[in-house]
């Protein structure tokens, strides 16, 4: 890896393109580096993972709305839409929109956490949509996804967005645009212009993840993917972007991030160096914000070993000592009263660690639908226990969260439980069971089982088997065969929900 220092520059400094971060990202994307077998295998896993969580969300209102918008934009050759026949094609940017919402809706796919946080699997819908439309091969798609993951992971390692209340999809626009550039074999200049436009159009505030969290949470990455496709289209037509987009005196760093005096050290693979960023990412066993994954596993364990802790009448307090991010984003440090409200939206509840721990302690399990049901959130004993749970930042957990050493990087915490009779119970967990260093790391069998579980009742058994067989053959798929990399809902299922009417 080569570390590049990125800082703001006055206009009269005339920063050459070769020194601009967007150009370095474009050079990475246009470098024809072979994909390693380990990366190829993980990409297949994540394609299966994305399809699993998208399948489980096909009847949810945001997904239904996005799908109906996409279907209003038929196009040939076009791209497929999750749930519908592969013979039905829409314009690729609208396919990326619909499929991106489906993938993101349940907060159930992969994650990477460092200076910023991200869901790198959000790169797959736009890159796949363009690959289908362009008649690319499976190998082309793998190369594009490799770039998308690599660039997003590298940006997330170095540049914090949430510190300045900028939504994390500002790293997704450039990574998706770069991945599409790799997929299509575009030159460095074209990818550079697309990256700049994608960044410029995908910066937004984090209010989408604050307070009463709305259905927009699922749309934010889908919009970034859609805008990345449009940016590539314009760049291919010779249209240019603001530059230097990161370093300019009125650019992203100067006005949206750490300001005119800021500098970032961004690590990027050198020329010819394998792109292995995807191997540092991790998926979810549970449908909830990633920092809750390990704590769900700890709560499930306590449910088995100390079942009396599920009774609020026995609990004086539960304090979760954890990282800065967990405390301030999904914990009581957010100071969001909605995180303790039984009438909160699902999107809010999956960003409330007090709620999640209360339910997991009582149920000994976590389910992507039942755990969020209104009757579950309103159960009196759950509400009572929930309001006895708070979080606190612990500097050591914050340090481990930001550690660059994979062996000590952690996203868990220490749970200190005080009972009404004065007992003090202390338990901790560093990483989720499904994490590569966890008790039960996810491998291909677990990704397949996740898909089969979430597809049960949504897809016909033959369709489940067909998709898994196609995904396993991804590297061998020939041009024109990527349309098979979708899922078709069982007959009549999509008709059980009403598509809302809009402009189109």
UniProtKB/TrEMBL annotation:
SUPFAM superfamilies: 2-methylcitrate dehydratase PrpD. One of its GO terms (molecular function) is 2-methylcitrate dehydratase activity. Signal peptide: none annotated. It is an enzyme of class 4 (lyase). It comes from the Bacteria. The keyword Protein biosynthesis does not apply. Pfam families: MmgE_PrpD_C (PF19305), MmgE_PrpD_N (PF03972). Its EC number is 4.2.1.79. Keywords: Lyase. Residues 286-472 form the MmgE/PrpD C-terminal domain. It catalyses: (2S,3S)-2-methylcitrate = 2-methyl-cis-aconitate + H2O. InterPro entries: MmgE/PrpD_sf (IPR036148), MmgE/PrpD_sf_1 (IPR042183), MmgE/PrpD_sf_2 (IPR042188), MmgE_PrpD (IPR005656), MmgE_PrpD_C (IPR045337), MmgE_PrpD_N (IPR045336). Residues 19-263 form the MmgE/PrpD N-terminal domain. Belongs to the PrpD family. Monomer. This is 2-methylcitrate dehydratase.
